[in-house]
Amino acid sequence: MKGFLISDNHDSLVLLRLAGIPGVEVHGPEETAAALEDVLANRPDVGVLVITEKAAAQVPAMVKTLRERGETPLLVEIPDRHGSMRQGDFLTRYIRDAIGVKIE
C-alpha cells in the first residue's frame, strides 16, 4: 500500500515528495473535495491518505465520513510548517468525546 498527500501548501507537498510520497496541492473546498474523491475512486493502492489540517478543515463532513467508515485509506491529518491548528488538549478531548471517559 502506498501513501498520498493532499496539501493546502507547497512546502508540505515538496517535503513529502522528497520522502517518496506523491500528492497534490489544493486551494479551496472544491479542489480539496475533488482531490479526496479522486483518491477514493481512482487510487485503490493508497493505504495512508495524509492531509494537512487546513485542507481537512475545508471539507469536515468528508473527513468525518472517511474516518467513520473504518476502511482504507487511513486518514492522517498533519500540521503544516506554521504549526498545529489544534489545541494542546486535543487528544484528551478526542478520547473523552469518543468513549466518554475523562482523563486527567
UniProtKB/TrEMBL annotation:
Keyword rRNA-binding: no
The keyword Transport belongs to this UniProt entry's keyword annotation: yes
Keyword set, alphabetical order: Ion transport, Transport
UniProt-listed Pfam families: ATP-synt_F
Gene Ontology MF terms in the entry: proton-transporting ATPase activity, rotational mechanism
Coiled coil: none
Family, per entry: Belongs to the V-ATPase F subunit family.
The protein, known as: V-type ATP synthase subunit F
